[in-house]
Specification:
Helix content: 40-55%
Mean pLDDT: 86
Number of domains: 4
Radius of gyration: 34 Å
Number of strands: 23
Low-confidence stretches: none
Number of helices: 26
Length: about 800
């Protein structure tokens, strides 16, 4: 019987090639989309899972609070913690907690110039790390000893890619690399490249003992922030009891400011951490939920197409069912037959979908910005799930058509008295409304996403970000010593308008600085605003406006030690609603005392996901500078860059000329948002394609059933326009109803998504009307094409047999 079912199903597929193509294509595209999204979700969930002792690894997070009495302060919120913290906490964990087995600390990501022979590159993904790093994490060494690789000063472990970059096919172990034109480091290990599914990655690790020898004092400073701390614990570890001991640890080590510790489990850090100052990128649970929902939407739409076309074609198979029942077929046998057909179509669609997913995976990787291995689908678990999906899709899509077809009464069918049930028509209409409601939601979602991203690109940030060339020299001492002369040399270039030197630029990485400023009641109040270390040309070069007071100036020599500029948000933090009232107030910051001389207007120096936070702009014209910014005025940027490069080789031959454009650097913060928008719109487009494809099949069948009616109407004088309107009216009503139902749901969902942005668009009528018009236009195109084709047909052909 199974062989007979398959044979009949095969014949039916060949007999109705058009409908078979629509069903299989729709399901194949839907399944391919689901496979790609499933691989994306699996990739996101796989972060850090390759570590063998994953469940025993935790990391410390820190909350640096401010206030006179720590006991009166409220507990910090999850977003108040940061991963970047102090060094002494590492030794304290080993000393005070017997359940801690190993501790490894990293310094914040370093940017260093590495050189071997003639090969010289500035590398941006380097960390100093403790020698215990390979005992805590499962990063495999190809050469060298895991325990000793970073135990001695001036040693370095390279990733395989970095070893190839500097040494080619030669043996890297034992070779030397010069760091920042100074010390020589010995290569004591080569490790496999860090897997892409790591919550932070790097290109090389340098020995922490080197860092400690250079700056031993900071390993005793609880308020100095420059480290990431990870540790392993015993198997009987009790997290609640462990965290309850933190307040006592802080007291025991006499931390003199409000400081709260917490921990995060390594399996949670990529998707669940809300702490700031991460060592790498973090994922988004919201994106996983959204893409998983889209996958379900797409598969449901494809299944609805199958159910609609199968039930609509019930009349064509009514006599077949009647003959089979007269010949003795049971209803259960007929159900099995029709379900077999459905499963066969689903299996064919799954195989085609698997091939489509394989072909389109590189394109999907480009859209998502993720390197996703197709091997994720070839695990026994994944293949088992694929078989389950294929069978479940076939059974789900074919269940209702099977029940309808097997329920026909043979006596009525064979007499020609059978008519399609009104219940079937109502169900088909309901399914059309449902699938187009899903499509409308996705269209509105896409429209909102792209409108928000466009808002981020075009918002006035409060500073010049275009035509700004940033030259990174990585704190090079020779450049810092001659920074004034170098700036003057660049000013002499014809296309350069102005020049400044600074530690970082908007969108870059910057520290916080504990700063006391005199409050309106005369008390010195301490907080930790963000810190920009700048020269006197920074504010005019970036076009930042003063809200009160003045800029730093060489006309005031005391500015280098006794002046401070803050932004409006900082002025409000210290109690001054009017920025003019903050001028002349005393401040104390990092060993410097003086008065506030200026307040700048708030500018968005961080991502627009965040509101403008309090900021101190500290005058450090020389030793804290790491980059030079040229504001240029030219239409020939390549010539300007070439001239700047030539001049740089004369001014700083020891450094490579590394430049970037500020606007590109700043908007790189929205890379994840942009990739989300691309992936969202791509799958939304596929969902709409599948819905329209199914609608096309349904319209084709519906108009085919009314061919004789249309012929009679034309003979009686009906116009083509009238016939097209007649055939389209019911379907257009369904699409309009779908738009009405879906719009409020979609707007509510996208409102939740927009909450992640501090500066977001207002959802106006354009965001409601335009997506609806797009869906209406697409539906009209699909419906009208087939309706016009039918209306233009020769009525003699349709009435020939009457």
């Amino acid at each position: 019987m199974i062989r007979n079912y398959v044979l009949i199903a095969y014949r039916n597929l060949l007999r109705h090639k058009g409908f078979s193509l629509i069903n299989i294509t729709g399901l194949a595209v839907g399944i391919a989309s689901c496979l790609l999204i499933a691989m994306y979700v699996q990739h996101e969930l796989s972060y850090d899972r390759y570590h063998t002792n994953l469940n025993q690894i935790y990391r410390v997070i820190h909350a640096y609070q401010h206030g006179e009495d720590a006991a009166t302060l409220p507990p910090p919120a999850p977003g108040d913690f940061q991963v970047w913290g102090n060094a002494p906490v590492g030794a304290a964990l080993l000393q005070d907690f017997p359940e801690v087995v190993k501790v490894v600390q990293f310094t914040g990501r370093q940017s260093l110039l590495l050189q071997h022979g003639e090969k010289r590159f500035q590398e941006n993904d380097l960390f100093f790390a403790d020698s215990t790093v390979f005992e805590v994490f499962s990063w495999n060494l190809i050469a060298g000893s895991p325990k000793d690789a970073l135990a001695r000063p001036h040693t370095i472990v390279l990733t395989e890619r970095m070893a190839q970059k500097y040494f080619g096919d030669d043996e890297a172990l034992g070779q030397t690399i010069i760091v920042d034109n100074g010390d020589s480091y010995t290569v004591t290990g080569v490790m496999e490249d860090v897997p892409v599914n790591s919550h932070f990655t790097f290109d090389a690790l340098l020995s922490m003992v080197t860092f400690r020898n250079n700056r031993p004092e900071i390993f005793d400073w609880w308020g100095y922030v420059d480290f990431y701390t990870y540790f392993t614990v015993t198997e009987n570890f009790n997290r609640a009891e462990f965290e309850a001991k933190f307040p006592e640890l802080v007291k025991r080590h006499k931390v003199h400011f409000p400081y709260v510790m917490g921990i995060e489990h390594l399996p949670d850090v990529y998707l669940h951490s809300q702490a700031v100052r991460q060592p790498g990128t973090t994922g988004s649970l919201m994106n996983i939920y959204i893409f998983s929902t889209i996958a379900v939407f797409i598969l449901v739409i494809a299944c609805i197409n199958f159910m609609n076309l199968s039930t609509a074609r019930a009349m064509d198979r009514a006599k077949e069912v009647g003959v089979r029942k007269v010949a003795g077929a049971y209803r259960t046998s007929l159900v099995k037959q029709f379900l077999s057909e459905s499963v066969l179509i689903s299996v064919l669609a799954t195989l085609i979908g698997l091939a489509l997913a394989s072909v389109t995976l590189p394109m999907f990787e480009t859209l998502s910005g993720k390197r996703i291995s197709f091997d994720l689908l070839y695990t026994p678990k994944a293949m088992g799930m694929l078989v389950v999906v294929a069978l479940a899709t076939g059974l789900l899509a074919g269940s209702y058509p099977a029940m309808v077809l097997s329920g026909f009464r043979p006596s009525l069918v064979l007499k020609g008295l059978f008519r399609s049930s009104s219940h079937g028509v109502i169900l088909r209409k309901a399914l059309v409304v449902f699938q187009f409601s899903l499509s409308v939601m996705l269209i509105i979602g896409t429209w909102v996403v792209y409108t928000q991203l466009d808002h981020l690109r075009n918002r006035d940030l409060g500073f010049h970000d275009e035509q700004m060339v940033v030259i990174d020299f990585g704190w090079d001492g020779k450049v810092q010593r001659d920074i004034a002369g170098i700036k003057n040399a660049f000013r002499d270039l014809p296309s350069v308008v102005s020049v400044s030197a600074q530690r970082t630029v908007p969108g870059g990485f910057f520290p916080k600085a504990y700063t006391e400023i005199e409050s309106p009641d005369g008390k010195m109040v301490g907080n930790a605003p963000d810190l920009f270390e700048i020269d006197e040309d920074f504010i005019p070069n970036f076009g930042i406006q003063m809200a009160a007071g003045r800029n730093y100036s060489t006309e005031f020599p005391s500015d280098t030690l006794q002046a401070m500029i803050i932004n409006e948000a900082a002025a409000k933090l210290y109690g001054y609603q009017d920025p003019r009232e903050a001028i002349g107030k005393k401040f104390s910051q990092w060993g410097r005392d003086g008065v506030v001389v200026g307040v700048v207007r708030d500018f968005n120096y961080r991502s627009l996901h965040n509101v403008v936070e309090p900021l101190a702009l500290r005058l450090e014209p020389r030793w804290s500078s790491a980059s030079i910014c040229l504001r240029v005025n030219t239409n020939d940027l390549p010539a300007t860059i070439a001239a700047a490069d030539k001049l740089w080789q004369q001014l700083a031959p020891q450094r490579p000329f590394l430049y970037s454009f500020l606007d590109e650097d700043f908007h790189r913060q929205y890379k994840e948002d942009q990739q989300f928008g691309k992936v969202f719109s791509a799958f939304a487009g596929l969902a709409i394609f599948i819905a329209c494809f199914g609608l096309f099949g349904l319209v084709t069948y519906s108009t085919g059933q009314r061919t004789k009616e249309i012929g009679i109407r034309k003979v009686l004088g009906a116009s083509v326009t009238g016939i097209v309107a007649l055939l389209s009216r019911d379907f257009i009503r369904l699409v309009v109803l779908a738009i009405v139902i879906a719009t409020p749901v979609a707007l509510y969902a996208m409102g939740l998504w927009l909450e992640d942005f501090a500066y977001r668009i207002e959802i106006g009528m354009s965001l409601v009307i335009l997506p609806g018009l797009i869906v209406m236009f697409l539906a009209l195109m699909v419906i009208s094409w087939q309706s016009v084709r039918t209306a233009l047909g020769n009525p003699i052909t349709s009435l020939r047999n009457e």
